[in-house]
């Protein structure tokens, strides 16, 4: 049936140096009392000190919470911080950081206007809630796409699962994308985040739910992210490469939100919960294997990505062109330091059943997005083959 929707509600301001427009962009919308969540590595850096000092002078109030969770955010961490903005009368919350900080900002926006005993009560897709404080996103590492989606992922440590606090109220009002803000991010965090974006781009591209609106965004995102990743690996301070990653992150995040995630992104969840493997690295691990899995079973849409990432001349044969695209993407993931096998990460073979059980019980809808249909046994066999 030829019917689909494309949701997008976040304005974007892109450009090196545009961080200095933040106060103006907030005031244009009547936001003068600002709550901010910022990654703990940032306030000490002169680039950020100067920026925040200037912002503080330009708004009526600036209350800053420094993000302190040791790994990706949990409901338990939200409980520790859920009241910090309650009595501050802030009219906007600005998230300044990577995916964890941006997601935490969205969670806090909901918790500030919806007091609950425990944050976990709002897990999933809560309905019947009061509108949260509006959120604005300023990523300081590119790739997660949290700056364009309403999703916010949190781990429930009691159940050993990732859920979220997901409400369409939490579409960021705007995203301010200044690549200069990402030049201080360390190599590992930068790569993990960029690879997360690459997973979003490829999985939205492959998803059986891709639409004529998502495909162009996915394809453009792949081009930006591949250029950005190459540039990043050559020089961490390359603003042009950082900019490519920011463009790709936004496009891929929007595409994924409208096309649904696939098995690589989903399988990153048990690795994150069980072994604290960063989301982007884990997703890239599975991406490098799902691409050839699909190619070997006759899926050749990858050929359409050749103009975005391959130098000419491209192989004339469609299957060969698709194979060349897959090899290029696999090479990039390998160059980023992603191991080839699960055992290289120290994951015991005996754990494979537990990972597969988790994926099948909680994440199966993502497997149903794969363009090559997989049975549950196919998924188990595939996972076992990756050890
Ligand atoms: Fe992701």
Description:
With 387 residues, the chain is of the alpha/beta class. The chain folds into 2 domains: 11-182, 3-Layer(aba) Sandwich (Rossmann fold), CATH 3.40.50.1970; 187-385, Dehydroquinate synthase-like - alpha domain (Dehydroquinate synthase-like, alpha domain). Helix content is 47%, strand content 11%. The strands form 3 sheets. It has a 4-stranded parallel beta sheet with strand order 3-2-4-5, with helices on one face. Strand 6 and strand 7 (161-164) form a beta hairpin. Helix 5 runs parallel beside helix 9 (279-296), helix 6 (214-234) runs antiparallel to helix 7 and helix 8 (263-275) packs antiparallel against helix 9 (279-296). The longest helix is centred in the middle third of the chain and has 21 residues, at 214-234. It is globular. Bound molecules: fe (ii) ion (FE2). Fe (ii) ion is lined by residues 196, 199-200, 265, 279, 283.
